[in-house]
Design brief:
By secondary structure, the protein is an all-alpha fold. The protein has six helices and no strands.
């Protein structure tokens, strides 16, 4: 799964955008505190809080070394979406992929929120 997400990140990074987003040779995404299955039945208010922190961190990733182009690409991917909409997107992804519930929640949230942008037409 980590290899698939690294490849997805590479696609995400090279997808057409206003500023280049250079993909690292190997993206490291550490295991988070939660497993994806723990998010399935989490009340909306708690999932909104989780996603708020996730998105805020993704959009501040340049302070941790992510390129500005990659952060702007993530911002563009999320543009116009509300937190309740992100909750629905994540819930849909998790319900469609119960075989991934044992994986880290942060990996599955990344897949739910950013993989559609990888596959979107330019």
């Amino acid at each position: 799964m980590r290899i698939q997400l690294a490849m997805a990140f590479a696609l995400f990074a090279t997808h057409a955008s206003a500023e280049p987003c250079e993909a690292p040779r190997a993206a490291y995404i550490g295991d988070g505190f939660s497993k994806a299955g723990e998010l399935v039945d989490l009340p909306d208010t708690y999932l909104i809080a989780y996603l708020n922190g996730f998105v805020d961190t993704a959009l501040a990733a340049s302070v941790l070394g992510a390129s500005d182009g990659c952060v702007k690409r993530a911002e563009q991917c999320l543009k116009g979406k509300t937190l309740p909409q992100l909750v629905a997107i994540v819930r849909k992804h998790l319900k469609a992929n119960p075989e991934r519930w044992h994986m880290s929640a942060n990996l599955q949230v990344f897949a739910a929120l950013f993989m559609p942008c990888v596959h979107a037409p330019n």
